[in-house]
Amino acid sequence: MPMVMIRQGESGAMTLYIAKKDLEDVVTAIEFDQPDKWGGTITIGDGTSYYIDPLPCPPKLPISLRARRG
Amino acid sequence: MSTMTTEQTEALIQEVLEVYPEKAKKDRAKHLAANDPTVEQSNKCITSNKKSLPGVMTIRGCAYAGSKGVVWGPIKDMIHISHGPVGCGQYSRAGRRNYYVGTTGVNTFGTMNFTSDFQEKDIVFGGDKKLDKLIGEIDTLFPLNKGISVQSECPIGLIGDDIEAVSKKKSKEIEKPVIPVRCEGFRGVSQSLGHHIANDAIRDHVLPALDNDNSFQTTPYDVSIIGDYNIGGDAWASRTILEEMGLRVVSQWSGDGTLAEMELTPKVKLNLLHCYRSMNYISRHMEEKYGIPWVEYNFFGPTKVAESLRKIASYFDDSIKEGAERVIAKYEAEMAPVIAKYRPRLEGKRVMLYVGGLRPRHTIGAYEDLGMEVVGAGYEFGHNDDYDRTMKEMGNATLLYDDVTGYEFEEFVKSVKPDLIGSGIKEKYIFQKMGIPFRQMHSWDYSGPYHGYDGFAIFARDMDMTLNNPCWGKIIAPWKATESEEMKEAA
Ligand code: SF4
Description:
By secondary structure, chain A is an all-beta fold. Chain A has strands at 3-8, 14-18, 23-34, 37-44, 49-55, 63-66, 68-69. In chain B, helix 3 (63-72) packs across helix 9 and helix 10 crosses helix 20.
């Protein structure tokens, strides 16, 4: 269960930062991005994906969350 | 030699790799690449932040160096104990030239070395008692210190000392922060993890200090300089132009910085991040916890300074934007003669860089302002995000080398034949003996500052002084020089 931080990158795209691996990459896909459900499987630029328990609403970025390898 | 094509660069890499055994070759191949500026994601062509191969000469440092030497060390009014044997601290003492104002040994302690000087018995019986006593002694001898940090060297982690407990106890006793930092040298693959650990320690022990205290008078123009270590006065050269454009610099992290400044940082409006590698962690944390945005900037060379000032100003109102333009106009006028003087002397010269966390990409603009070209760059301890940022700045097919080994670097230099090399002290004398002009780009070769407009004038002078030094024509002993060379010299 690594900690990941999701933030708005400089170019406007969402980025995911994995503290443990010290790796930041753009989010290429996010399973749920609706007003009432946010999270699920998140895929990043290098192809790996992480699972974040869906939140009831889109959070204020940046935010640190626990993620599972998805 | 003119610029190389991708094929030529790749052929060179293959040729250099030839001497390695199969396994080593496979590993090293991943760390060397020909640049392709169109690639968005560097990890597709270069691997970084991996353990160095046993047996090669790497130029990296350890996590202790990243924490004590880089992040914590420059905080001038704290005492940083190098906890463990005497060598780690003593051999790195004051080598980084992070300038500060104050009276050393009275209210500032930057160039001093404090160590618990572990002996055999401390390893066998543990060093907690010694640390306890040491902290007491320090506070008696140097009562004006504002706090103490305990920087662990390798043995501390190995013997399992509980520095956290000692720190907590002593902190109560001396009524000052005593901050344990678990930056044992063996953690991580390079100094990079040390930066991270140091950032985490600041996050946990320094930043929350004023969370419930709003007595600090803020202004809408408060910023802090993050990741500028004031090498040769860099942060001062940066600070002047930021203040001239109307911003108020609340804190400097950590060159010429104080503990109080760091504690006030959560009150600022914007964090200005120079060294992304060593302090992005804390900037991310402050963004999340305190809602302070951060912006990367680059203060090397007038082009990049102007770009950065505009970028910084875009976070503020019109008065700052005007201020930025005013500052740019004023200094561009000052820079024009500098460029006019040095550019003709340096035009077209080719540079190879191999430095730490930000300079391989940040200084490219400054060299370009002087008409020079960076033909090879690499990081000691960069990560993918560093290469992402670098590849866009570099020309097509230029060499990229991550954690380059002594052998590879020499071979690359032999065939690329750059006019100037910028790297560290360990590389300096090898290349100078090979007859290639060299600048030590970690501590600016006893010069500096290089940041900001004032710094650029010095940068240009230094590059000229090094490159056009008459000594490079005298590398071959007169009795070994051939006829033609003698003729050339006489002419
Ligand atoms: S690796 Fe360990 S022993 Fe060596 S300098 Fe770093 S902390 Fe000291």
